[in-house]
Amino acid sequence: MRGAVFLLCLFFSATSFAESDWHTWGAVVTTGNFISPGTGMDFWMEGQGRFNDDTSRFNQGIVRAALGYRLAPRTTVWAGYGFIPNSPRNRRDKVIEHRAWQQLTWRPENPIHGFSLSSRTRLEQRTIEGFDDLGWRFRQFVKMTHPLPNSELLYWSFWDEIFLNFDDTDWGANSGVDQNRIFGGIGIKVASKTKFEIGYMHQFVKRERRDDAHNHILSFTVLHRF
Predict the structure, then answer these.
(1) What domain count does the chain have?
(2) DSSP string, 189-204
(3) 112-121 LR contacts (CB < 8 Å, sep 24+)
(4) Residue 76 is part of a domain; what is its CATH number?
(5) With CB atoms 3.0 to 4.6 Å apart as the test, which of 50, 56, 169, 202 could cross-link to 133 if both were Cys?
(6) What is the extent of the structural domain holding 101?
(7) Rounded-to-integer distance, Cα 11 and Cα 5, Å
(8) pLDDT of the chain along its 226 residues, tens only?
(9) pTM here?
């Protein structure tokens, strides 16, 4: 108990010296077999909308698409592209990011102590319109789910993702830790191949020339598998 209180004190003392905001993020992610199940090819399509300033204004959109090849029943390699329009505070013009990305997704065959695990390792190459530099970023995502007692439809969902920049860029990326996101919430099996997850996400953003950011986010995601 004392350890938990100590950790809470550390958290609130850290956030008291940081910029914080309330956001709402929504996402739809669709994956499935490309052409036919026997080809070993999968597709990934994703759309996101993010709102900041206490959810009062549009901040960022994401459109991502990729093709994947299944190395094994639960292991897939992917390559794709993302288009990311941003609407920063105090700027009339949008900031447009183009992002090539590759990733490896994996999950074990059986649950571990009742928890189903999944892993996503992603490498991104980022460019911003109007700038020259190419930014390389590494992301590691680990997710755990666990059924709620006496329920076939509801489950707990927990995940964490860390972001690391490999280089400095002329558009503001700095090498080292970029951000971390941690999520906890509830999942609902809406249909045999469709899930809906909603919960709280904490986003830590590392900044060089101003206070770090600690954002509190209402996150909801629709996951569909064809």
Answers:
(1) 1
(2) EEETTEEEEEEEEEEE
(3) 114/146, 114/147, 115/144, 115/145, 115/146, 116/144, 116/145, 116/146, 117/142, 117/143, 117/144, 118/142, 118/143, 119/143
(4) 2.40.160.40
(5) 169
(6) 2-225
(7) 10
(8) 444 444 444 444 444 456 899 999 999 999 998 776 667 899 999 999 999 999 999 999 999 999 999 999 999 999 999 999 999 887 778 999 999 999 999 999 999 989 999 999 999 999 999 999 999 999 999 999 999 999 999 999 999 999 999 999 999 999 999 999 999 999 999 999 999 999 999 999 998 888 899 999 999 999 999 8
(9) 0.89
- Looking at residue 148, its amino acid is L
As beta bridge partners, residue 62 has 48
